[in-house]
Specification:
The longest helix is centred in the middle third of the chain and has 18 residues. The radius of gyration is 19 Å and the shape is globular. Helix 3 packs parallel to helix 10 and helix 5 packs across helix 6. Strand 8 and strand 9 form a beta hairpin. It is of the alpha/beta class and about 280 residues long.
């Protein structure tokens, strides 16, 4: 008998149902990849206060030993995501991988270390000029600048008119980024200035191929997750079964392409627990 919960956690597309069936049939050949903010952790006004949903780490720890790999792919620095997620030293997550800065950094639980190339010089230049740009538009005190090491993010969620501030800054921040060889990645009330050529799609594709996975599930909630969605769609054409999960309906482009739409981090953790009940434990 199919429960109401099973129905809510069943993909609405045939490709998604095929992907989920492949994960359940051969979990040891599957990669489960998830975004952090908005997917594992609720969105909050101050990004420094973001923490994983209370059920997220237990769900990942229960699922990880059953699948080929669990990966967290985030725009945050890998070390920050590890701290805010509480991923280090958790039984069951001994082989967790966190791909930070859209894959430019990598933290492996097995070693507890972060590996990364040298930072792009444009980030330091942008960081020094950014206060002047925000002052020029009267938004220095109405925004929150998040230092990401290899990127800089300007959050407008604190402004009296968050959407208005977001739209006001798109063009000048785009020009600032371009002058220093960077690109602007828009998100939910945030504009991130970062190096080009690195995105979650590239990170996910490379990792799936590294693992040799036959199936992959990716869950995300923001515009920065669209390249990962595109990567799964391309991997499907190459014979890798895939499931696309939107953590909510805020980003219509994401929800419209998803095989399954859930209710934020609580919905994602419910899906992870659901996969535990449907997959066999390791022999």
């Amino acid at each position: 008998m199919v429960s109401h919960e099973d129905d809510l956690l069943t993909p609405t597309t045939s490709a998604g149902r095929d992907g989920l069936a492949a994960i359940v049939a051969r979990p040891s050949r599957s990669v489960i990849a998830v975004d952090f903010d908005g997917t594992l952790a609720p969105i909050v006004a101050d990004p420094e206060q973001a923490r994983a949903h209370p059920d997220a780490v237990p769900a990942l720890a229960a699922l990880a030993p059953r699948v080929a790999s669990v990966a967290v792919i985030t725009g945050r620095p890998a070390g920050v995501a590890v701290r805010h997620g509480g991923f280090a030293g958790v039984p069951g997550l001994e082989h967790l991988v966190v791909l930070g800065h859209y894959g430019a950094e990598r933290w492996d639980a097995v070693s507890g270390t972060v590996s990364a190339p040298a930072p792009h010089p444009g980030v330091a230049a942008v960081r020094s000029e950014l206060p002047g740009v925000l002052e020029e538009f009267g938004l220095w005190h109405d925004t929150y600048v998040e230092e990401k090491g290899r990127a800089v993010a300007v959050h407008t969620r604190r402004a009296a008119d968050p959407q208005g501030a977001f739209e006001t800054l798109r063009e000048p921040l785009g020009a600032l980024a371009a002058r220093h060889g960077l690109v602007v990645e828009p998100g939910r009330m945030v504009l991130e200035l970062r190096p080009p050529g690195v995105d979650k799609g590239v990170a996910l594709t490379e990792y799936v191929r590294e693992v040799g996975a036959e199936s992959v599930l990716y869950a995300g909630d923001d515009l920065g997750d669209l390249p990962a969605f595109a990567a799964v769609e391309k991997l499907r054409l190459e014979g890798v079964a895939g499931v696309l999960v939107a953590a909510d309906t805020v980003i219509s482009e994401l929800a419209g392409r998803a095989d399954l739409v859930l209710d934020g981090p609580s919905g994602v953790t419910a899906l992870l627990h659901h996969l535990v009940t449907r997959t066999a434990p390791p022999a």
